[in-house]
Structures are given as structure tokens and as C-alpha cells.
Amino acid sequence: MVSGAIHLAAGTGPNKDGGIKRLQEKNLLVNPEMEEVPNDDPDKAGRIAEQDPPAGTKVLEGSEVTLKIYAQPEMVTVTDYTGKMFEEAKAGLEALGLKVERRDVDSDEPEGTVVGQSPSSGEVVKGSVVTLEVSNGANAEIEMPYLVDLTVNEAKAKLAEAGHKGSVEVVEEATDDPNKDGRVASTEPGERSKLKASDKVVLHVYRYQDPGNGGGDDDGGGGDGSDCGGPLQPACPPGQ
């Protein structure tokens, strides 16, 4: 007598026991050796992945059907690294066999701090991706360091050490002291002020002007005009 092989839909059909029961109801035998198929979906674990002969095949009663079953994926428990530094979180998650995806976000937490994690807890399949939201420090509060008498490059380096990430504007101020040339006279904001890491900082920097370059008498009148028209000098009168 011929029997129609029953269709056991891969992954969405019955579990192993249910599949065996349905085949036996059709007077078919089931091969007791069932190969497990690798699987990363916990919902498919224990369900029938394949059958041989395939669905729709006409077979004799008593024929043997071989089944392949989706294996149970290896699960790991996620550790929540919110509040920890990214490198620590990455190392810990990778040690569990998980993949790490980093996404930098604006935050008032120090740069490199994990401020969000998905998933943050529970069991996941080994090899799954965990997304870490990491502070770029843009909104973090820092304290303005003392920069007076430093060169512009030295001042910028010290700002970076303090966590500053914003722009730096340089405004020149005249000085007749050559020893102050190129050095910071004052800053905006001032020393020990609180500011966001992304805020702009203004450096007022001395620029030496040789007083001997000017001509004429003490009040600047009656000269040859050499004390006008230059950097940080008043405009020259017409004709000069």
C-alpha cells in the first residue's frame, strides 16, 4: 500500500516528538538517528529542520523517514556594563563570545563611558551583537585650566588634557614687552570656571609691537606716519 509522506515544515512545523507521532500515524517508520542542524534561533530549537524523503513523495507503508532537528543554540548571560569604560565593556562581552557594536553619542558623562547597552541583560545566543552607546564627552563638564603665560600650542594641549573638545579662538593684544610675545594674557572663561567640553574658549594672546618703530613726538603728531596703518595701529590720515 502506498502512503503520502507528510509535510513537516522546516523550523515552523512540529517539534521532534510531534513529528514522529504524525509520521507513525501514517504507518511510517522514523530513523532513530537524527542529525542536529546548527541553529542560532532559540525558537527553532528542537523543531524539524529537514525530512528525507521530502514532503509530497509517495512511499510504501512502513518506509523509513529520516529527520534532521534544529540544535539548541549555545546561550550566554549578558553582563550590563552601563557606567563602565568602553574598553572594559568590550573585553568582557567578547570574552562571552559576543560581538560588540559601538555607537558614540553626546552625553555629559566622561568620554568613553558606556551610557547605554542593548541588550543589557538576560540570555542571548552566543555570537549575538551587543550595541554599546558610548559618551563622546561633548556635554561633559570640565574645569578651565590656568593658561596664562603659555604659548598658544601649549594652551591648546593643556585644554585637550582637561577634556576640552570645542573650538579655540585667538585674539591678539599689543604689548611692548618682547618676552610676552605669543603668550596667553587671559582667557574666556577664566581659570577654574566650569564649562562644557564642547564650549568655545577664547585666548587673549600678546603680540609684540616695537615702540621704536613709531616716529614723531610723544603724542604721535607731526611724525612721518610710520606709527599708523600697521597691525594694531590707527588708520593713517588721508595722504599718508
Question: How would you explain this protein's 3D organization?
Answer:
The radius of gyration is 38 Å and the shape is rod-shaped. The chain contains 3 helices and 16 strands. The strands form 6 sheets. Strands 2, 3, 4 and 6 form a 4-stranded mixed β-sheet that branches. Strands 8-11-9 form a 3-stranded mixed β-sheet, with helices on one face. It has 3 domains: 2-70, Trypsin Inhibitor V, Chain A, CATH 3.30.10; 75-135, Trypsin Inhibitor V, Chain A; 141-212, Trypsin Inhibitor V, Chain A (2-Layer Sandwich), CATH 3.30.10.20. It has helices at 16-25, 86-95, 152-161; strands at residues 2-4, 29-30, 35-37, 48-52, 58-60, 64-70, 75-77, 99-105, 114-118, 123-125, 129-135, 141-143, 168-175, 184-188, 194-196, 201-208. With 240 residues, the chain is of the alpha/beta class. Residues 41-50, 177-202 have a biased composition (Basic and acidic residues). InterPro entries: PASTA_dom (IPR005543). Pfam families: PASTA.
